[in-house]
UniProtKB/TrEMBL annotation:
Residues 220-242 are annotated as: Disordered. SUPFAM superfamilies: F-box domain. This is F-box domain-containing protein. InterPro entries: F-box-like_dom_sf, LRR_dom_sf. It comes from Caenorhabditis elegans. Residues 220-234 have a biased composition (Low complexity).
Length: 242
């Protein structure tokens, strides 16, 4: 006689299961989501019930070394600066963005109701690989978004309709365009008072963004180490279908 298997999530119910899943970190939640639709729904409910603000840093690495095609994620909770928020560091490769776009959006959907800051950095400036849909998503799906920082990006694909959406965002206070290319559509739309275009260095950048530059430096060092050590460990690999 075949033993009947019981789904623990269905037994716990929709009220208790999300509470239990809330104790899991992002890597564990991601793996658990793949078990079934019921598990995924319970985990998404757990994520929606969280209240900590989220800052998202998306860093594009182009070091052509072992593992550069992998997308990795670090969620930081350590230290006083993180006690009142969660900080997500997402590392992508611009030359593999077609592969990373889906997993990236899946991550952002988990936090979209709590995101307050989004920083996107491509260093040095590259071709226009970021789609307009990403910026439209931030304008329409992140109700608590207050701050957008864009550095060394080619913004050619942003269209005027998306700029209107950003201008009409009820909570967006600042859009900083730093050393970017093809940002004219942002400047042409005069009803975007939040816009600040910067061509040189920004004084007080750390005060606005936290230890962002330090994280970029660590990312660069990590990429260099991977080039000489093919088996280097990635924090949360998500290249195989996040």
């Amino acid at each position: 006689m075949t033993e009947r298997r019981v789904d623990p999530v269905s037994v716990l119910g929709k009220d208790i299961a999300p509470v239990l899943f809330s104790y899991l970190q992002l890597p564990q939640r991601t793996r658990a989501e793949r078990v079934s639709r019921g598990w995924k729904d319970a985990i998404m409910e757990a994520t929606r019930n969280e209240t900590k603000p989220v800052w998202v840093y998306i860093i594009f690495r182009k070091n052509h070394c072992s593992g550069h095609e992998k997308m990795t994620v670090n969620i930081s909770f350590d230290g006083p600066i993180f006690w009142k928020r969660q900080v997500a560091y997402i590392y992508c490769c611009s030359c593999h963005f077609d592969e990373h776009e889906g997993p990236l959006m899946a991550i952002l959907e988990k936090f979209e109701q709590r995101v307050e800051r989004v920083c996107l950095v491509d260093k040095p400036v590259d071709y226009p690989f970021l789609p307009d849909s990403l910026f439209s998503y931030m304008a329409n799906k992140m109700p608590k978004l207050q701050f957008i920082y864009l550095r060394e990006l080619d913004l050619e694909k942003i269209n005027r309709g998306t700029v209107v959406e950003l201008a009409n965002h009820p909570n967006l206070k600042k859009v900083i365009v730093h050393l970017c290319r093809n940002y004219e559509v942002l400047e042409d739309f005069r009803n975007l008072p939040q816009l600040l275009v910067v061509k040189g260095e920004i004084m007080g950048l750390k005060a606005m963004l936290g230890d962002f530059e330090e994280e970029i430096a660590k990312s660069t060092a990590s990429s260099s180490a991977q080039s000489s050590e093919a088996s280097a460990h990635s924090p949360v690999p998500v290249n195989n279908g996040f």
